[in-house]
Write a structure and sequence with these properties.
By secondary structure, the chain is mostly helical. Helix content is 69%, strand content 0%. It has 7 helices and no strands.
């Protein structure tokens, strides 16, 4: 197995307990719920086949659902952003063409591209997650508020994680 595959397996294994044991216990007034586990989906290589992206995202969301007692909402939101990820990444101008071996990261595509890419997918994930959870339109303002605050907090965690862990690992 290559180093990228091993790094992604380790990321998968670390993010699930981190989410379930620590981050799920963070709830600032009901409006900030960080969901860092989606970092796994955000950082998968561009060359990841679509079927593998969807299946691994489903399994990731399903694990979070099993350990949090939710009934498929994380799996649904994760599969949605996995499905939309290629469209979002292609629609954002990067100034660079995607080359073989390039990752959706700050190091490869820059901070501005990474923040735009991450924020769009995080907002889609959080909105769909909270909408499925509430399953009603009358609370739309609360859902939008939770989405915005949680997405901003999650984005800060994603960017910090990217700086802390991606730059410490040297690639050949």
């Amino acid at each position: 197995m290559g180093p990228v595959i091993i790094a992604n397996i380790i990321r998968f294994i670390i993010l699930i307990p981190l989410q379930v044991l620590i981050l799920d216990n963070i709830n600032f007034g009901g409006y900030i719920n960080p969901y860092l586990y989606i970092l796994f989906i955000l950082l998968l290589p561009f060359e990841t086949p679509g079927w593998l992206l969807l299946i691994s995202s489903f399994i990731l969301g399903l694990f979070v659902d099993v350990f949090t007692g939710t009934q498929g909402i994380h799996a649904a939101a994760s599969v949605l952003i996995a499905y939309l990820r290629p469209f979002v990444s292609r629609s954002i101008a990067s100034g660079k063409e995607f080359e073989a071996g390039m990752l959706p990261s700050i190091r490869d595509l820059g901070l501005r591209w990474f923040i735009t890419y991450s924020f769009l997918l995080i907002v889609i994930h959080h909105f769909s997650l909270f909408m499925i959870e509430a399953f009603k339109w009358p609370g739309l303002f609360d859902i939008l508020q939770r989405t915005l605050f949680s997405a901003l907090f999650t984005l800060v965690l994603v960017v910090l994680s990217e700086y802390l862990f991606s730059f410490s690992v040297k690639r050949k």
